Amino acid sequence: xxxxxxxxxxxxxxxxxxxxxxxxxxxxxxxxxxxxxxxxxxxxxxxxxxxxxxxxxxxxxxxxxxxxxxxxxxxxxxxxxxxxxxxxxxxxxxxxxxxxxxxxxxxxxxxxxxxxxxxxxxxxxxxxxxxxxxxxxxxxxxxxxxxxxxxxxxxxxxxxxxxxxxxxxxxxxxxxxxxxxxxxxxxxxxxxxxxxxxxxxxxxxxxxxxxxxxxxxxxxxxxxxxxxxxxxxxxxxxxxxxxxxxxxxxxxxxxxxxxxxxxxxxxxxxxxxxxxxxxxxxxxxxxxxxxxxxxxxxxxxxxxxxxxxxxxxxxxxxxxxxxxxxxxxxxxxxxxxxxxxxxxxxxxxxxxxxxxxxxxxxxxxxxxxxxxxxxxxxxxxxxxxxxxxxxxxxxxxxxxxxxxxxxxxxxxxxxxxxxxxxxxxxxxxxxxxxxxxxxxxxxxxxxxxxxxxxxxxxxxxxxxxxxxxxxxxxxxxxxxxxxxxxxxxxxxxxxxxxxxxxxxxxxxxxxxxxxxxxxxxxxxxxxxxxxxxx
Amino acid sequence: xxxxxxxxxxxxxxxxxxxxxxxxxxxxxxxxxxxxxxxxxxxxxxxxxxxxxxxxxxxxxxxxxxxxxxxxxxxxxxxxxxxxxxxxxxxxxxxxxxxxxxxxxxxxxxxxxxxxxxxxxxxxxxxxxxxxxxxxxxxxxxxxxxxxxxxxxxxxxxxxxxxxxxxxxxxxxxxxxxxxxxxxxxxxxxxxxxxxxxxxxxxxxxxxxxxxxxxxxxxxxxxxxxxxxxxxxxxxxxxxxxxxxxxxxxxxxxxxxxxxxxxxxxxxxxxxxxxxxxxxxxxxxxxxxxxxxxxxxxxxxxxxxxxxxxxxxxxxxxxxxxxxxxxxxxxxxxxxxxxxxxxxxxxxxxxxxxxxxxxxxxxxxxxxxxxxxxxxxxxxxxxxxxxxxxxxxxxxxxxxxxxxxxxxxxxxxxxxxxxxxxxxxxxxxxxxxxxxxxxxxxxxxxxxxxxxxxxxxxxxxxxxxxxxxxxxxxxxxxxxxxxxxxxxxxxxxxxxxxxxxxxxxxxx
Lengths: 534, 508
Ligand SMILES: Cc1cc2nc3c(=O)[nH]c(=O)nc-3n(C[C@H](O)[C@H](O)[C@H](O)COP(=O)(O)OP(=O)(O)OC[C@H]3O[C@@H](n4cnc5c(N)ncnc54)[C@H](O)[C@@H]3O)c2cc1C
Hints:
The complex is a heterodimer of chains A (534) and B (508).
Chain A lengths: L1 H12 L2 H13 L9 E3 L2 H9 L7 E10 L3 H12 L4 E4 L11 E3 L4 E3 L4 E3 L6 H9 L3 E5 L2 E4 L10 E5 L2 E4 L9 H19 L20 H4 L6 H7 L5 H15 L8 H9 L13 E3 L5 H8 L6 E2 L2 E9 L2 E8 L4 E12 L3 H7 L12 E11 L14 E4 L7 E3 L12 E8 L5 H10 L2 H13 L5 H4 E14 L9 H7 L6 E3 L10 H17 L3
Parallel strand pairs in A: 1-20, 2-3, 2-15, 3-12, 9-17, 15-21
Antiparallel strand pairs in A: 4-5, 6-11, 7-8, 9-10, 13-14, 14-15, 16-19, 16-20, 17-18, 18-19
Helix pairs in contact in A: 4-17, 6-10, 8-10
Chain B lengths: L1 H40 L2 H23 L6 H26 L6 H28 L7 H28 L1 H22 L7 H20 L1 H9 L6 E7 L4 E6 L4 E5 L2 E5 L3 H13 L7 E6 L4 H6 L7 E5 L3 H9 L1 H6 L9 E4 L3 H5 L6 E7 L6 H4 L4 H9 L1 E10 L7 H13 L3 E9 L3 E9 L21 H4 L20 H14 L1
Parallel strand pairs in B: 5-6, 5-8, 6-7, 8-9
Antiparallel strand pairs in B: 1-2, 2-3, 3-4, 9-11, 10-11
Helix pairs in contact in B: 1-2, 1-3, 1-4, 1-5, 1-6, 2-4, 3-4, 3-6, 3-7, 6-7, 16-18
Bound molecules: flavin-adenine dinucleotide.
């Protein structure tokens, strides 16, 4: 009985034939409407920094410490200040705190507009472990390893890759890949594993998170001078599938291809994550429907009363008795002058160039990759190709996009057809300025077309299954660790505090943009600030 | 001279290509019928050999019959091509819809095979007679047969390697029917001056092409339509809820409930399943009062629970309102569960069990988990350490928990994974099993927090569980006995992966 029925179903549902004729057939049926728009961010307010036309302040306030910016780095600093009973105030340009880790929500689920996961944390940063315990992410210890809250560990199946007309499990290409290429891929993963356990002559891990705790051994620092692409060629890696995979990984964390990031950063992606859990395998990650906004909300809980949103800081000047900070209060449409004894500057350096010209400004070596994020609502059951079922991370081989994350994946109940897919599209061209212009110039319909064309490869009827697409453009999404950035002189000079009054905290000062680095930058700045209290 | 020679050459090529296509189509129909028969009726050796035999024999009849066709050979040939296209093209669809629908399925099957065979058998002899006066006969016969056999080889390779995996049976047969008709049309067009009724043939061809094209495009719809026809007995109720398709069938001896095509119970032997589900656990609890049933919206488990007078409240949590409503309102079905769902002791909550349980604090003496088998990742979550942790929190210290745990015979590893998962989070377990004829060997795991034991106090008038049979349920013969296994978590889903493999192996 079962044999027959299953057989019938499978043989009847074989998909290839459908795709030849269904589009034509569907064209005859009723027109399907997809709603949506470009949601954010509110570029207009930020762009006022270009012409700097602000009226003189009509009000003045003062505080002990002022935090400028409200991203992860800022909130991490706020947590430390709070725990040390320092009074402070925080100014954030957006309508809510979170920066690149904000999220949205609709009738189906919450979903991220930026960061969506945290790998199991390394044990080098006790502050991060402490915070994860406070946040209920780590709930105990067993066999000397942290026990994580089950609901936050990414459920199985974790990932799948659409390649050669088939959804394979794992993102490492193997389906329809030649033996020689697979051997090369194996050689690569073995090499990366060696780097993962390697230590420098100073006894430190060759690659770790926070980056600042990595070994200073010249052997490894030399890798920061060449590109990841050059590294691959030097090591005789030529497989097209492997190059795609490495490019995919570089785009994932840096928004760039292997040609535009240093080999040190590229290897860091594979070799720095050493976190372990008592109740999950090493490669498991932590994720939530709303992505890292979950962690943002937990951080915000420390400073609910101190956060002021819709506040654009446009001028910072060091004075004898502290710092003067001017900001535009968009809610009240007025400018305010803040006097603070110390300032934690948790904004990216391209912004600091404008709002704090007194400080050390950065050169062209600080490049930021633009990103387009789409949250796609699926209304009826998603058409699938052969192979694995939908996973948390779903990637299409050879695509310019990074594929999509199923925001409904961590839902514990019985899955229904409705879901939200968060689609990631980095603009990885070498020239970030023209890529940024292109990202802004494309209209909603252009983006929609790009998305539909890409996803239709793996989901033949998706255009009819989507009910809504909302889009977010990040002009300066992530710092790109180009060769020479992470271990160069400039980044150190920029990161230095000024006059013991201004302390800098932003993930771009680590040279890579990830939650752990933002978090680390934040509490380090706060601790320096505490040390130099007047 | 030269000109007409060229013409004859290209004409000959046209015919040879037609022979090639016609031969390919012919063999494809034969393979489709053989494959369908062996999957639907089982025993592939017998099916294939009888189908091939019948088919070849029918071709012989066709060849024989061809001599009785004398006038208008061309028109005959084209008409036959159109017929082959239609009969062959629709055969898979017809067979599929009729299977399990009618008693004389075999009669239909072999009639269709005969019809296709006869028509295909007519093709070549007719063609040769048409050609006899048109082209130099010379080596034509050998050429025709060469192309005929190449076509056969081509088809036999194409069928298993490309057509079945990528097209599926239905589309394959529609597609080749389409090709057949196209060939007929092209030949007719080339020779239209020799044909009396070209225009009527043309229109017939167009209509055939439209029908076959529609069939091809609508294959999926056909699947949906005929899916409900794949039940052995008469369907008395169907409904699609947001979560599943509910089907109830009735035969002379029983009622059956199917959810998404999977049998949930047969009224003839469900008492075995439900008595085994409830009584081994329930009977060893001292004065059970509060009972929780997760899943089990058909009310059969509740019926068994109500046999304990000490019970004063039962909570039934079932995702699908459509199921609980049905078993609370349909008279025939209510007599199956003895009106259990109308009991004043019962409260029904229609919510997702996992979502629901995360907000619970109230404790229960007995908890029943009667979920569908872990056949997909959503269901697999209900068999995870995380879910069992939540259940453990709301189980009284002396309470019992029972879980339907699939077949320890078919899915032996899966069964023991469930046991291991419960043990991993600190439950003491007692696995057991029973035989339910409509299901086969079925397994359950009883789990508790305490090793205190009580004598079983069974209700009277049970039909399956008794003082004598009860201890036997806990004995596992070697072929179902415990195997080393890992435990199932949300982030490894080993159970679903194992379960899928075991059932696939069993039903292959
Ligand atoms: C698309 C995308 C996906 C990502 N995915 C991941 C991921 O999965 N995992 C991960 O770990 N990381 C991810 N990241 C990296 C992410 O950037 C970091 O995790 C982290 O959120 C960075 O925090 P931050 O505080 O350093 O910077 P930001 O988030 O940039 O914070 C800076 C804040 O300053 C505010 N600001 C700027 N100018 C002014 C001004 N003039 N006045 C007042 N306020 C101002 C901004 O609004 C912003 O809130 C992703 C980034 C992007 C863009």
